[in-house]
Specification:
The protein has 277 residues and is mostly helical. The chain is built from 10 helices and no strands.
């Protein structure tokens, strides 16, 4: 029985499978964001005076947003990096060919009882779907071996389905890896922008309470900081929402394809075999 389980195991996925140490991506993005904030956004050429109170372009205006800006910028860069990482990982998971075409060809091969053709399609397609289908096909063949002859048809179908589900569970971590980080930034971007807004408004009201025209610059700086952080935070959350929903939808499509093929394999076995007396 152990031999059968070994044969039903899926192949190891080839190609890019995602970055497991996502913490380091966040650290690198933070370093880049803070470096840009102090070296590019805060350079003297972006301001009309040496005290950096009057920005002359958008970079100087962003710098006036305060120290919360590079924090939000770190989140934005993390979303971009994770989106690229997920795109590469899911591209590998889907395989070399179009997924709908692959599923249709697999179902046709199963209807024709051409399991050699189905295995060739899996070897050609590669990726997570092909690995799971290949594991199901191996379980199908294992049920026809002499040591499993005493099992009833329902038991054999159950084992084929179990092999399919186990192979799917082994592939799922690769498909959903780092998506929780993007989902977290959806909320964290808005909250960090709100934090910057509150800090900026505190400075504005502090300048206003001091009174006098001399504090108008401080008042303007506080309001500017509040608005910049609000806009930056909302923009970051917007990007995170789009990325998360896009890749979640792709994972769902792949999962539906796996379920469809797995059901077809189990039904094919059930239709082509009868319980022996």
């Amino acid at each position: 029985m152990a031999t059968t389980q070994k044969k039903a195991s899926p192949k190891k996925s080839q190609g890019f499978q995602g970055v497991r140490g996502a913490f380091w991506i966040i650290i690198v993005c933070a370093i880049i964001a803070f470096t840009l904030f102090f070296t590019w956004f805060g350079r003297e050429a972006n301001f009309a005076d040496a005290t950096k109170t009057t920005p002359v372009n958008v970079w100087g205006t962003i710098f006036k947003g305060g120290i919360i800006v590079p924090v939000i910028h770190s989140l934005l860069l993390t979303v971009i990096a994770m989106a690229i990482e997920r795109w590469l990982a899911l591209k590998t998971a889907f395989g070399k060919g179009a997924l709908p075409k692959f599923v249709a060809e697999i179902k046709k091969a199963l209807n024709d009882n051409d399991f050699a053709k189905a295995q060739q399609l899996c070897d050609k397609q590669q990726g997570s779907v092909a690995n799971v289908v290949g594991a199901s096909l191996k379980a199908y063949k294992a049920m026809e071996e002499p040591e499993n002859a005493k099992l009833k048809k329902a038991q054999k179908v159950s084992k084929i389905t179990q092999a399919h589900e186990e192979a799917t569970q082994l592939e799922m971590p690769t498909l959903t890896m780092n998506l929780p980080i993007i989902a977290t930034i959806v909320t964290l971007g808005t909250l960090t922008g709100l934090l910057g807004t509150v800090v900026g408004m505190i400075r504005s009201f502090s300048a206003l309470s001091a009174g006098g025209g001399a504090d108008s610059a401080a008042l303007s700086a506080g309001i500017s900081e509040a608005l910049i952080n609000t806009a930056f935070g909302i923009g970051t959350s917007w990007c995170a929402v789009v990325a998360y929903n896009y890749y979640t939808n792709k994972v769902d499509k792949l999962t539906f394809a796996l379920d469809e093929v797995g059901y077809s394999i189990a039904q094919t076995y059930e239709a082509n075999h009868t319980d022996e007396a």
